[in-house]
UniProtKB/TrEMBL annotation:
Classification via PANTHER family: INNER MEMBRANE PROTEIN (PTHR30506), UPF0126 INNER MEMBRANE PROTEIN YADS-RELATED (PTHR30506:SF3)
Subcellular localization(s) per the UniProt record: Cell membrane
Transmembrane segments: 15-35, 42-59, 74-92, 99-117, 123-147, 159-178, 184-206
Pfam families from the UniProt entry: Gly_transporter
GO cellular component, one term: plasma membrane
Stated name of the protein: Putative membrane protein YeiH
InterPro entries referenced in this protein's UniProt entry, alphabetically: Gly_transporter
Species assigned in the record: Brevundimonas alba
Keywords per UniProt: Cell membrane, Membrane, Transmembrane, Transmembrane helix
The keyword Cell membrane is assigned to this record: yes
Recorded family membership: Belongs to the UPF0126 family.
Main location: membrane
Start and end residues of each Glycine transporter domain: 19-90, 101-174
Length: 216
């Protein structure tokens, strides 16, 4: 079967490969911020950063039978540590949480596309590629929230996982319809980012189950 993505999309030499490192850095920074809320030490900052930064990609690679990406490339862990140290150095600035929400939106969109693209390279069916894209973008944050004792992103009505699903879905569909890889990647990541941005600016959320909150 001919892959619906270009093999070059999964290499660090490409623009999307650069976004892979950027996404790791962004998610590592959110992990460090979780440690900051609990006033942990620098080692815990780095641990939270690494778990969050590579968690989603690790699960994806294990599920699709690929070599775990960070084991063969030390730069990913180095990026996690550097991002964690940067959060430590920035300190308690009032704007840092808001800025990282927007960076996280970029990471969700890019990782949704990247995860789907890499899964397809290993012969995964299109629907499962979408699932892998969402897992790549979201699983690290789920682990971070569990370790920090915070509500999981899966339990928040604010649109987060849906943005990653949208990015992955649009990419897979666009490539299946014959769109070139780069336009498909930018279209998909742009739409995923726009959905997450709408949630941040206007508070978009999916409808709740009827009667929610009426338990007696």
């Amino acid at each position: 079967m001919t892959p619906i993505v270009d093999p070059a999309l999964a290499t660090p030499e490409t623009v999307l490969g650069a976004l892979d490192f950027a996404g790791v850095a962004v998610f590592a920074a959110t992990g460090a911020l979780a440690a900051a809320r609990e006033r942990h030490d620098l080692v815990t900052f780095a641990f939270f950063g690494a778990i969050t930064g590579v968690g989603g990609g690790t699960l994806r690679d294990l599920l699709i039978g690929a070599p775990v990406f960070w084991v063969g490339d030390w730069r990913y862990i180095a990026v996690c540590v550097a991002a964690s140290v940067a959060v430590w150095m920035v300190g308690a600035r009032p704007w840092r949480f808001r800025a990282l929400l927007w960076l996280d939106a970029v990471g969700l969109a890019a990782y949704g596309v990247f995860g789907a693209a890499k899964a397809e390279l290993f012969g995964v069916a299109p629907l499962i590629c979408v699932v892998m894209g969402a897992l790549t973008a979201c699983f690290g944050g789920i682990v971070r929230d569990l370790l920090a004792g915070q509500p999981s992103i899966l339990l928040r009505r604010e649109i987060t996982v849906s943005a990653a699903l949208l990015a992955a879905s649009v990419y897979v569909i666009a490539r299946a319809l014959g769109l070139d890889a780069w336009p498909a990647a930018f279209l998909a990541s742009g739409l995923g980012f726009a959905l997450r941005a709408g949630a941040l600016v206007w508070g978009w959320s999916l409808p709740a189950f009827p009667g929610a909150g009426t338990r007696g």
